[in-house]
């Protein structure tokens, strides 16, 4: 029985995905674990592997490549050798049995020894007995090949029995059809062309019937542009909103309209944290181990603080409060495609060095678009740091369905009063923390106590390092 391959659900919020590229072609043999195609989900490019072995089959009328379709949409099949697709079986049940492109008519209410009279192609493509136009007869395999090659099979003259169009007819017409076949362009090439200002129509005219790839676009932009007519700069530019930007917009709006966000801000003396990182940096350089960033240190200490304040590590699900028994720490990463929040799972069980190594890998994958779905799901708390952009304090937006997010500002040396009675001041490394929480789930006082706990851990790192 043919196994359906559908658009997978690669995250709890994923409702649709874009089929970016086929990595297996129709008729290819696949083994369990082979990568079949790539899908762009909410915020990542995912490689989808096969859980079965067999023959990879793409329906002849499939037009999902490069399109965004709902989860569960049929994409392809996996069949066993000799097994027909459901569409092929439907055709056979209607009176045609296809055996190696040599169709044998199964006649109903007619003697087996009396073959049917041949039907001319002109008649089959023109009118039936009722004066209605109908398409010529074509085998399922020929239809599939025609779809792959861009051949308009309805105009072909079949050489099979009773004027039936078979695969050889499609392939024989390729030389004449190729010049008029619609040029295809990969989704990646299309985005590159839009970004570089390459005229896709002009490029398609130079390579009729061929599939335009990113390499074609890049070569086109490198050619001499001196002969191009000058363009008048428009007063405004309108471009389609990228899918990732749409998702970010939808989630930010949903967060703002669904939650009851409140933000608390406090200033922290991070001098001891700065000393700790300097020590780790010196050690890491000597033994080539990953050097923990401030984000890594903050993620670890915040996770320890959440153990004492589990209501900040929870979410609302309908009429229930779901408290997580582990801390899965999300951290916001700025990429060319938009904001992405990869997740380090069960962070309390990992050392600072492990967190640093995993964080480096996730940031790289986020920026090159190779994150897997499980790297983006399951987060229970998020940290977002804008300190590298010289931002002191800001109002972070809750990453639903989580109930809180911690915003981190830059660390700045300041002159601080450390003993008011003695009128003594000192230069200390200060930073702001901004905690946004969902007031539907957490009240102000518990949220303030949590932020106070985080502040104490930053100012006295030994409190959480010994945990």
List the helices and strands and how they pair.
Layout: E1 3-6, E2 16-22, E3 29-30, E4 35-40, E5 45-49, E6 54-57, E7 68-70, E8 74-79, H1 86-93, E9 96-97, E10 104-105, H2 121-126, H3 140-149, H4 167-172, H5 174-177, E11 184-185, H6 187-196, H7 200-206, E12 211-212, H8 214-222, H9 243-258, E13 261-269, H10 271-287, H11 294-308, E14 314-317, E15 320-323, E16 329-331, E17 333-335, E18 338-340, E19 343-344, H12 352-368, E20 381-385, E21 404-408, E22 412-419, E23 424-438, H13 444-459, H14 462-465
Parallel strand pairs: 11-12, 16-20, 20-21
Antiparallel strand pairs: 1-8, 2-4, 2-7, 3-6, 4-5, 6-8, 9-10, 13-23, 14-15, 16-19, 17-18, 21-23, 22-23
Q: What does the model show?
A:
This protein is of the alpha+beta class and 467 residues long. It is 31% helix and 23% strand. It has helices spanning 86-93, 121-126, 140-149, 167-172, 174-177, 187-196, 200-206, 214-222, 243-258, 271-287, 294-308, 352-368, 444-459, 462-465; strands at 3-6, 16-22, 29-30, 35-40, 45-49, 54-57, 68-70, 74-79, 96-97, 104-105, 184-185, 211-212, 261-269, 314-317, 320-323, 329-331, 333-335, 338-340, 343-344, 381-385, 404-408, 412-419, 424-438. Strands 13, 16, 19, 20, 21, 22 and 23 form a seven-stranded mixed beta sheet that branches. A four-stranded antiparallel beta sheet has the order 1-8-6-3, with no helix packed on it. Helix 11 crosses helix 13. The longest helix is centred in the middle third of the chain and has 17 residues, at 271-287. The protein is elongated and about 105 Å long. Mean pLDDT is 80; it is low at 89-133, 177-181 and 224-230.
């Amino acid at each position: 029985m043919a196994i359906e391959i559908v658009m997978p659900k690669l995250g709890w919020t994923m409702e649709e995905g874009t089929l970016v590229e086929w990595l297996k072609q129709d008729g290819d043999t696949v083994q369990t674990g082979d990568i079949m195609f790539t899908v762009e989900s909410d915020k990542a490019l995912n490689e989808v592997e096969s859980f079965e072995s067999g023959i990879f089959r793409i329906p002849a009328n499939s037009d999902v490549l490069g399109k965004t379709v709902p989860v569960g949409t049929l994409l392809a099949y996996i069949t066993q050798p000799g097994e027909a697709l459901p569409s092929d079986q439907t055709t056979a049940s209607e009176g045609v049995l296809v055996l190696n492109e040599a169709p044998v008519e199964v006649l109903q209410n007619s003697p087996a020894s009396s073959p049917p009279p041949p039907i001319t192609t002109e008649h089959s493509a023109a009118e039936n007995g009722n004066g209605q136009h109908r398409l010529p007869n074509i085998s399922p395999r020929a239809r599939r090949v025609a779809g792959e090659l861009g051949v308009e099979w309805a105009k072909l003259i079949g050489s099979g029995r009773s004027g039936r169009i078979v695969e050889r007819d499609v392939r024989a017409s390729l030389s004449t059809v190729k010049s008029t076949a619609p040029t295809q362009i990969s989704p990646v090439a299309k985005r590159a062309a839009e970004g570089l200002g390459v005229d896709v129509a002009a490029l398609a005219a130079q390579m009729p019937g061929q599939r335009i790839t990113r390499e074609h676009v890049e070569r086109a932009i490198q050619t001499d542009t001196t002969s191009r007519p000058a363009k008048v700069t428009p007063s405004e530019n309108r471009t389609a909103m990228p899918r990732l930007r749409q998702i970010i917009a939808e989630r930010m709006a949903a967060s703002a309209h669904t939650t009851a966000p409140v933000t608390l801000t406090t200033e922290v003396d991070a001098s001891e944290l700065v000393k700790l990182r300097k020590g780790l940096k010196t050690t890491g350089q000597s033994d080539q181990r990953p050097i923990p960033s401030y984000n890594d240190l903050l993620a670890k200490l915040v996770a320890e603080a959440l153990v004492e304040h589990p209501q900040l590590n929870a979410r609302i699900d309908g009429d229930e409060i779901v408290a997580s028994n582990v801390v899965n720490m999300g951290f916001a990463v700025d990429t060319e495609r938009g904001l992405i929040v990869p997740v380090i799972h069960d962070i309390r069980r990992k050392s600072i060095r492990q967190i640093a190594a995993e964080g480096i890998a996730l940031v790289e994958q986020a920026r090159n678009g190779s994150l897997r779905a499980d790297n983006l799901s399951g987060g229970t708390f998020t940290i977002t740091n804008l300190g590298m952009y010289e931002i002191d304090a800001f109002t972070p937006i809750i990453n639903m369905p989580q109930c809180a997010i911690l915003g981190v500002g830059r660390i700045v040396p300041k002159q601080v009063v450390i003993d008011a009675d003695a009128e003594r001041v000192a230069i200390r490394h200060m930073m702001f923390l901004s905690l946004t929480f969902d007031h539907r789930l957490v009240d102000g006082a518990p949220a303030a106590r949590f932020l106070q706990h985080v502040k104490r851990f930053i100012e006295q790192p030994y409190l959480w390092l010994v945990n």
